[in-house]
Design brief:
The protein is α/β, with parallel strands linked by helices and about 250 residues long. Helices cover about 45% and strands about 15% of the residues. It has a single domain, classed as NAD(P)-binding Rossmann-like Domain (Rossmann fold, 3-Layer(aba) Sandwich). It has a seven-stranded parallel β-sheet with strand order 3-2-1-4-5-6-7, sandwiched between helices. The chain starts with 8 loop residues before the first strand and ends in a 7-residue tail after the last strand. The structure holds nicotinamide-adenine-dinucleotide. Nicotinamide-adenine-dinucleotide binds next to helix 1, helix 4 and helix 6.
């Protein structure tokens, strides 16, 4: 699907690694100018270089999505540079703590996880939507997770945070459907990224379950999530809003 986002301005959070980086490259391939954002400046700059190497355009803006002032400034910088915001991929997230049951989960980690995974997505929506209302529409995709659709042992806080992202996505879709703003979520299964490497590090028992938990029998690639996001951002998905789309090799079909 070549050039489906020709001339669009797209913002990607968590763009310095994994799924966010792969999606930035696919959106650029489809003709969008990318505002690459991350709390990790080195990772973000690397993504921007890769976009430029393939002939694309964009800029890096440092932002911690859990801080309102950062997110507000991120949207302002986008509009200042490019005049509009057509597509937003609210993707930044952390895995938190793994290795224990719910009663063992540390409270400070719970708070940090909720600040980034839930409040971070809410803040992005809060500051992106007014710009999209002003310009008469836009497309937003949030990164939830297969763990946002079903429960997940040893990942209760993460699973709760991603269920919240699904709730925010569906509610925002309802509230802004008549304004031309589509809001969807992708729900990745087990994807080969630095986050997944951290989740399985030293946990052979956990790693060994991956092929059976994901019936396709392998991990997904970041690029496979990126293609779904690009479609949801494009006009080809003009009737699609309020969807929490599993991209998970049948993980949640079981
Ligand atoms: P990753 O760790 O490779 O990338 C996450 C990026 O988010 C990093 O560049 C990190 O610096 C950035 N980030 C973290 N906290 C931030 C903050 N406060 N503000 C701005 N940026 C911040 O992980 P990934 O696997 O690419 O994950 C991307 C998204 O996909 C996350 O929301 C994750 O929960 C979700 N997800 C991943 C998988 C998987 O299997 N990898 C599955 C389902 C959902």
């Amino acid at each position: 699907m070549p050039d489906t986002l020709h001339g669009k301005i797209a913002l990607v959070t968590g763009a310095g690694s994994g799924i966010g980086r792969a999606t930035s490259l696919v959106l650029a391939r489809e003709g969008a100018t990318i505002v690459v954002s991350d709390v990790n400046a080195d990772g973000g700059e690397e993504t921007l270089s890769a976009i430029k190497d393939m002939g694309g355009d964009g800029m890096f803006v440092h932002a911690d999505v859990s801080r309102a002032a950062d997110v507000e400034a991120l949207v302002e910088a986008t509009v200042k540079a490019y005049g509009r915001l057509d597509c937003s991929y609210n993707n930044a997230g952390i895995e938190g703590y793994i290795g224990g049951r719910l009663h063992e989960y540390p409270e400070d980690t719970w708070d940090r996880l909720m600040d980034i995974n839930v409040k971070g997505v809410w803040l992005c929506l809060k500051y992106e939507i007014p710009q999209m209302l002003k310009q008469g529409g836009g497309a937003i995709v949030n990164t939830a997770s297969a763990a946002g659709l079903v429960g997940s042992r040893q990942l209760s806080a993460y699973s709760a945070s991603k269920h919240a992202v699904v709730g925010l996505t569906k509610s925002a879709a309802l509230e802004y459907a008549k304004d031309g703003i589509r809001v969807n979520a992708v729900c990745p299964g087990i994807i080969d990224t630095p986050m997944m490497d951290r989740l399985v590090a030293g946990r052979d028992d956990y790693a060994a379950t991956i092929p059976t938990r994901q019936p396709i029998g392998r991990k997904g690639t970041p690029g496979e999530i990126a293609e779904a996001v690009a479609w949801l951002c494009s006009d080809a998905a003009s009737l699609v809003t309020g969807l929490a789309m599993p991209v998970d090799g049948a993980f949640t079909a079981q």
